[in-house]
Amino acid sequence: MSIPTIVHLRRARTSLVLDGRGPGLPRVVHWGADLGPVPADDLPGLVDATVPPVVPSSFDAPTVLSVLPEAGAGWSGRPALAGHRDGTAWSTAFHLDGLDVEDPEEGTARAIVRASDADAQLSLTVEIDLDPTGLLLLRHRLRNDGVTPYELRELAPVLPVPAVATELLDLTGRWCRERSPQRHPWPMGTWVREGRHGRTGHDATLLLVAGTAGFGFGHGEVWAVHTAWSGDHVTFAERRPTGESTLGGGELLAPGEVVLAPGAEYATPLLYAAFSDDGLDGLSDVLHTHLRARPSHPRTPRPVTLNVWEAVYFDHDLARLTALADHAAEVGVERFVLDDGWFRGRRHDRAGLGDWFVDTDVWPDGLHPLIDHVTGRGLRFGLWVEPEMVNPDSETFRAHPEWVLSVPGRFPPEWRHQQVLDLAHPDAYAYLLGRLDAILTEHPGISYLKWDHNRDLTEAGHHGRPGVHEQTLAVYRLLDELRARHPGVEIESCASGGARVDLEILRRTDRVWASDCNDALERLAIQRWTGLLLPPELVGTHVGPERSHTTHRVHDLGFRAATALFGHHGIEWDIGAISAEERRELAAWVALHKRLRPLLHGGRVVRVDHPDPAVWAHGVVAHDGSRAVYAVARLATSVAQVPGPVRLPGLDPRRRYAVRPAVGAPEPAVLQLTEPGWGPGTTLGGTVLATVGLQMPALHPEQTVLLEVTAVD
């Protein structure tokens, strides 16, 4: 058994202090800004300095917030653990059994808390990792040590936030308008975001952020959490009249969904927690750096992708598709993806799902002729699948209605004419794994799967009990096994667009489809806020047609292409039906993306706080400060005829930079008689560019100017 102690872990610009002196669970004394090398002799004083006084009409001893707040320790807020053993063991008082600490000079620091409650017959393990970026990862493990079952209702890691955090920011949304920010003062009480979709959800918050008053992209102290789980989940912020403020999150369990048999254990989803004293961009920098350091993170250049959905929909014709592949190669595309409609009976979205065999009525010679043509042009080939779903009008459903997630006696309401296959059913799982494995084995030219998921899980029952928990774990197993068998195949997480975007699905996938909406104006916001969590290379960003498929809004190619530039670039457009001049302009944009790709997919993302809501600016800066690219977009007309200068953040203040419009990008449409004073280019210091900025051209609404910035000394 380890000797309980006070622990101070430091990584990057973050400190974590734990009071592990017992006898109860350790307390998080500080999570936030780096405290520097605090002498060991000063740690008890630091801890004591944060203990609140006893006040009238309260407990007779100070109430302190442990790593798992308990009513037995005086916590009257949201329970971190809720459960019971046939009506007993509903309240706990864990005793600290050990605190193990690993704090190497380099790499991840780790603290493992071991505790037990003999009366409740439960054991708890708390795993706390502080990685080299300063990102905190927490997980609880609960074991049933009794001889009778224990029903778990909730278990969620919780972290304290200092009282200086007075505002909350999170995201909501819907289909084709994902990642809509909402911000408000942090009042007394609990702000709870629950996702009951059986998938992450279009309205998932991604990050729940607490910050100091007026925090922005480049300033303020901010604390944030992300619940890494692809099923039902909860993320919450709580402020108590007793003085505590907390952030937390975990899995959202239905009644009876997790019942621990004697000796069984439950592990929470990982809670990712990040701190920054440089505002929201600082949070993104921590998260992006962490994700890029993962062994599974894509290491090769992200191929420019053409997806054929908005070009052909269900109208699959070999001659048309091979011609489309030829045009794709002509403009510089590197991956060609055949979307929905290739399998048996799939002429529309009301039939065929579940019958994962190539439809010989449409493809009499199979997919090989198209795959051979595409790969023969030097492009990679990808294929759309939606394995978790089934149409009632399918051979699979007619043969196996028992494979559907449902409650006894009825099926859930249909959504997009489909139901959900119960992957926790061994036969359904084996069928899907077998068919997907066979498709990839029979077509070695397939190197990419666009994995879709087009409905919520409603009344998702498994053998009469709630089934989302087991379904989510089964999806993870299916992806893990398929990738083990076909390690060269990349997978995209698509769920009606952006409804399955979380860091647990991204352990198994190589990018996400942020939204089914390719309207460039909508996409600016969707991509900006998805990028709060994910680096650009993990977010699919495509150039759509002139008139948007989902909004019918019309944009010129320059605005669409400049918006799609900052991500995993691609095209969702019938480029066989456009003019040769448009294809030449599109090819120039693709070439520009390829030239900038190492910077875009490796640099630090910055976003600009501009006082004019009609002016949005963002960029990517190389970590060594040698170069940057910025986009400044005019969303609408402004009250001011000429909005104020745009600052260019993130540059090295000690260096001078040449600034010029991006080479290879067509000029945007402007309303001006002369150029701004800096003309076609200027050279200024990093401090000047970040503090004073540059006056932008007088852009028309829905236009973007791109700036390349290069260090000259």
What features would you describe in this structure?
This protein is an alpha+beta fold and 713 residues long. 19% of the residues lie in helices and 29% in strands. Strands 5, 6, 7, 8, 11, 12, 14, 15, 19 and 20 form a ten-stranded antiparallel β-sheet that branches. An eight-stranded parallel barrel has the order 21-22-23-26-29-30-31-32. Strand 7 and strand 8 form a beta hairpin. The model has no long low-confidence stretch (mean pLDDT 96).
Question: Can I get a quick summary?
Answer:
It is built from twelve helices and 38 strands. 19% of the residues lie in helices and 29% in strands. Strands 5, 6, 7, 8, 11, 12, 14, 15, 19 and 20 form a ten-stranded antiparallel beta sheet that branches.
Secondary structure elements and pairings:
Blueprint: E1 6-11, E2 14-19, E3 27-33, H1 43-48, E4 81-84, E5 95-102, E6 109-117, E7 122-130, E8 136-144, E9 150-155, E10 158-160, E11 167-172, E12 180-185, E13 189-195, E14 208-211, E15 222-228, E16 233-239, E17 245-251, E18 258-260, E19 265-267, E20 270-276, H2 279-292, E21 305-307, H3 309-312, H4 318-331, E22 335-338, H5 368-376, E23 380-385, E24 389-390, H6 395-399, E25 419-420, H7 426-442, E26 446-451, E27 461-462, E28 465-466, H8 468-485, E29 490-493, E30 511-513, H9 520-530, E31 539-543, H10 557-564, E32 568-571, H11 580-600, E33 604-607, E34 615-621, E35 627-634, E36 656-661, E37 682-685, H12 686-691, E38 703-711
Parallel strand pairs: 21-22, 21-32, 22-23, 23-26, 26-29, 29-30, 30-31, 31-32
Antiparallel strand pairs: 1-2, 2-3, 4-9, 5-6, 6-7, 7-8, 8-19, 8-20, 9-18, 10-17, 11-12, 11-14, 13-16, 14-15, 15-20, 16-17, 24-25, 27-28, 33-34, 34-35, 35-38, 36-37, 36-38
Helix pairs in contact: 4-5, 7-8, 9-10, 10-11
